[in-house]
Amino acid sequence: MYIIIMAGGSGTRFWPASREQKPKQFLNIIGSRSLIEQTFLRVSPLTEEKNIFLVINHIHRTLTEQLFAERRVTILSEPRGRNTAPCIGLAAVHLRRHAGDIPMIVLPADHFIADEDAFRQTLRAAATVAETGAIVTIGITPTRPETGYGYILKGAQQSTLSEHPVFLVEKFVEKPDLPTATEYVASGRYLWNSGIFAFTPNTILEEIAAHLPDVYRGLRQLEEHISANTYQAMLDDVYARFPSISIDYGVMEKTTRPVYVLPGTFGWSDVGSWQALYELRRDERDERENLTDGRTLLIDTRRSFIYAPSGRLVAAVGLDHLLVVDTPDALLVADLRRSQDVRRVTEELKRKEWKQFL
Predict the structure, then answer these.
(1) Which of 176, 216, 307, 318 is the most buried (most CB within 10 A)?
(2) How far is CA 82 from CA 128, 164, 251, in A?
């Protein structure tokens, strides 16, 4: 099998620690290694290093090469971010040209997995199903009514593979409101959409051709130029014309081909916000449920997260559910429970053209 690690995201919800030049997937926010390195090490037992592709934004090429200087990974650069459909398509044409119609596992670079052995077992089972020409996704058994994730409605069980039940997908569902999410969890029929997929290059490219024909035409042009000295110019031209569209919206919600889902119970998080990180690092909190990283002084403060890589002392007095992120040139102060809204700061910075803070 081949592994495609998608690492082109901008990480706007982790501003100001995450910036355009060094977004979330390159930060050491869980442990001593960056999220992209942890993802690589997590999947490397599944295949040879040369069979692992990293798809990144071109501005992170040097940073990625430095992190993986001693590894034999393949690095594919996108000239600009165009969401997951073009990203996956780019990897698929390179893989088809490189190795033929081999199952490919596609996963984001910035997720957290608690039980890595169980995770790898699930991916192996997914790759086996994908060998038949099927589209496969990994759904996460919900632990709470979450409004920040998309959901998958699972249908009838089709088989069991290496003790993993395989269900038909009835439909993909957009992020729900809280009452709807509560109903989903209570029904027992819904899974969180992890954004992890398995298929062969031919399978996914056929689906892109059917539902995103303009994207497919560009990908075919790229495939014809992969080994030519005109490839980079063609890549720039094609990506300038690509829409920004996710594989979920562009293909998964429209396909008439059967899609299968394997439920995952390996302790998953998309680490999608500062609050999600606070929840993941619960074992590091003090007796008042505070999580601190850096030089801090807390008085009568509870359930707060102070992240201070700047080295300056950050003191907090009489606060609750506080989020503070202190960096050398920008300071974020927010309600920890509203950390999903941090992306609105980056949107406003773009509107004001304050590029030095992006």
Answers:
(1) 307
(2) 29, 33, 15
